[in-house]
Amino acid sequence: MEHLGLSLALFGAALAAALAGIGSAIGIGVAGGAAAGVMTEDPNKFGSCLILQALPGTQGIYGLLIAFFVLNKLGLLGGAGAVALTWNQGLQILASCLPIAVVGWYSAIWQGKTSAASIQMIGKKPEAMGKAIILPAMVETYAVLALLTSILMLMGVQVG
Amino acid sequence: MSYVYTVARLRGMENHILDTAFFARLMDSSGIDDALKALGETSYSQWISGNENFDKAIDSEMLATCKELESFVPDKELIDIFRIPYDFHNVKVLLKGLFKVRGGEAEGRRYDLLSRLGTIDTEELKTAIETEEYGFLPYGLTDLIPQCWQLWDSSKNPQAVELLIDHAMFRAMLNVAEGLKMPAVIHWVKSRIDAENLRSAVRLARIKYDSAKALPFFHEGGTIRPDDMARLLNEPQETWSRLLSHTDIGAVLGALQDSGDIKASLSDVSKSLDDYLIRVLENAKYSMDAPENVLLYLLTKEAETRNMRVALVCISGGLDREFGRRLLSNGR
Fold first, then answer.
1. Measured between alpha carbons, how far is B17 from B304 in angstroms, rounded to an integer?
2. Which residue in the set B2, B11, B72 is minimally distant from A120, CB to CB?
3. Is the CB of residue B131 less than 8 Å away from at least one CB of chain A?
4. Pick from A30, A42, A116: CB nearest B12
5. What is the pLDDT of residues B230-276, one digit of tens each?
6. How far, rounded to the nearest angstrom, does the alpha carbon of residue B94 sit from its chain's CA centroid?
7. What pLDDT does A156 receive?
8. Out of 2.102.10.10, 1.20.120.610, 3.40.50.2300, 3.40.50.300, which CATH number does the structure's domain A4-156 have?
9. Which CATH architecture does the domain made up of B1-74+291-332 adopt?
10. Domain boundaries, given as residue ranges, for chain B
11. What is the DSSP letter of A83?
């Protein structure tokens, strides 16, 4: 039981990185399918398609950021050794990781779908690139809010 | 199976569909040379070498589209639904030819009327029907063709045979659509049956056909029952839109009535019904992965080829351009 707190905290870091990463991979895959379709007809649209395809990738980065934050808080980075955690503190860190893990996962998938729709839009109307970026960027708002929530919660957890 | 790639590629291909403005310019051409020059920048230029046999060139364009789609659409059956009517058209052409030959008309065969757009190779179909070896034929043709012969032998009525083939065609289309388990596609096939039934009803009403004998003219499988369609013939045509107001297709009649054109020519009614069949699928435009986009693209392309045929026949034959413009479908 003495390592339960640390295990819970690490589980939270793993969830943040894994779920948000899986969501990003799915989102980028969906947008990539649409980009390939549009570029088959017009390879000159590679630049526009790439930007839109990359948008759902940010959630994976946010998840990784939170995972680093947790590892740093636990003293696992830099070789100083892990700090002692109660199970209650471990649970608090796990809870702090959930906003970016869950919201990152879902929002990346939906952002990928919106990006795919936007890629199809520029396939037909290349002049609408500005509008095409804004639509998937709206989904990003909620991933950013979840990231902020996770950071603020982690900052509030007292360890050591 | 994901349709994201497919729909994205179709969006790109839609840019090459010729729009209404192009056909308006084409109809303004001073002559066929001028029209061919205008076609020089389109995908049709690869098929049209001179001012001979436009039909073949237009079919080649449509066939190339079907083949291209088959190379990347996950469910080939979606394209088959579009192509099945051409198979049944070919069966009609071949059987009618053989009926004439057996009736003593040695030159009865009309192979020139065969369409290459069917799913069955025309040569294979020709051989199968002429040698009476139907075993490999799909869509229930194995049983249908002997039935057609039986009906012909007993009635010598080509119209009855044609109706039997049409019934089987719609049954085959519905079977393929149901096999795909795509509700929007099934709905489209049912709408297509309704459209065909309504077209028949308008034709029969024009010749004041007895409604009691009209039932065989209507096909099963639509959203409106055949006997309800037959009953329409007892009512004045002006009331049809009200009687069918609970159905999607009632709006087509409503629009014709609003424009004071309820007694419009058959070609106008056909044009409205063709446009309606495209409209049925138009919601798919707003989806990034709806499979029915494939069907929508094929129908839009078919409308383009139909417009091309009207325009070229009109220009090369020196026909009234205003009449030709009226026949053009609403394109992209």
1. 7
2. B11
3. no
4. A42
5. 988 888 888 888 888 888 888 777 766 665 555 566 777 788 888 88
6. 18
7. 95
8. 1.20.120.610
9. Orthogonal Bundle (1.10)
10. 1-74+291-332, 77-180, 182-290
11. P
- Chain B residues lying within 8 Å of A120, measured CB to CB: 7-8, 11, 288
Measured CA distances, B36 to B1, B25, B51, B282, B314 (Å): 41, 12, 8, 32, 13
**Contact across the interface for A35 and B9, Cβ inside 8 Å:** no
Task: Select the residue from B286, B288, B293 to test the A interface by mutation, using most A Cβ atoms within 10 A.
Answer: B288
Q: Are B117 and B59 in contact (CB under 8 A)?
A: yes
Give the torsion through C-alpha atoms of A85, A90, A92, A95, to 10 deg: 160
Cα of B29 vs its chain's centroid, Å: 28
Q: Rounded to the nearest 5°, which phi and psi values hold at B198?
A: -65, -40
Q: In which residue are the tokens 């190379």 written? A: B71
**How crowded is residue B210: how many other Cβ atoms within 10 Å of its Cβ?**
10
Whether ipTM > 0.95 holds is no
Tell me if B8 and A37 make a contact (CB, 8 A cut-off). yes
B15·A41 Cβ contact <8 A: yes
- What are the residue ranges spanned by the domains of chain A? 4-156
Q: In CATH terms, is domain B182-290 a member of 1.10.1660?
A: no
Phi and psi at B120, nearest 5°, equal -95, 130
Rounded to a whole number of angstroms, the CA Rg of chain A reads 19
Please, which residues 10-39 of chain A have a Cβ atom closer than 8 Å to chain B?
Answer: 30, 33-38
User: Quick check: B217 and B170 in contact, CB under 8 A?
Assistant: no
Q: What's the pTM?
A: 0.87
Residue owning tokens 């044009």: B271
* Planar angle of CA B299, B300, B303, nearest 5 degrees: 85
From the list A34, A36, A41, the residue facing B288 with the nearest CB is: A34
B285 Cβ under 8 Å from any chain A Cβ: no
pLDDT in tens, B142-187: 999 999 999 999 998 989 999 999 999 999 999 999 999 999 999 9
Instruction: Name the residue in chain B with its Cα closest to that of A33.
Output: B5
Q: Give the other-Cβ count within 10 Å of B191's Cβ.
A: 21
Cα separation of B97 and B158, whole Å? Answer: 11
What is the average pLDDT value for chain B, to the nearest integer? 88
Q: d(Cα A54, Cα A51) in Å, to the nearest integer?
A: 5
Helix (H) or strand (E) holding B203: helix B183-206
Q: How near does any CA of chain B get to the CA of A102, in Å?
A: 24
The sign one gets for the Cα dihedral B216, B221, B227, B230 is negative
Residues 105-124 of A with CB under 8 A from B: 113, 116-117, 119-121, 123-124
Residue carrying the six token digits 């919106």: A114
